[in-house]
Amino acid sequence: xxxxVFWSYVxxxxxxxxxxxxxxxxxxxxxxxxxxxxxxxLTNHAHFLHAGAQYTLGEATATAAxxxxxxxxxxxxxxxxxIATITYQHASRGDGDMVALVERSAxxxxxxxxxxxxxxxxRVLSHVQLSDSGVHTAAREPVTVxxxxxxxxxxxx
Length: 157
Prior knowledge:
By secondary structure, the protein is of the alpha+beta class. It has one domain (3-154): Roll (Thiol Ester Dehydrase, Chain A). Helix content is 31%, strand content 34%.
């Protein structure tokens, strides 16, 4: 499935994401990056990106990352977030954009698919890093980190 077709499917099934205007930067089973253009209405009283907007971006990125593992059968599975933990490490600048990133190895992709094929249900763990303008450096840690556990199961008829 082409990335734009996958993202169109996500936007169709998750209309809430339209409100935030989240856009994809990278959509592969091994790397998912979504960008949130920061606007004044998404900031808090201190002019930092609101925590709820950060959570939504991170959860959407984890869900897209789980979905891309099953892009060939995406209409045949249901994906829901079961557990999410979030740590706000420091304040977002609140200007520019925020980028959320999930990366996983090809072997992890194969392992998750194998488990699903044998059990028709699998839990997918995604580690999400959110950074101002997508900047991840040793000198500046991500603004926010999340661990999201998604449940993927065969869709009910």
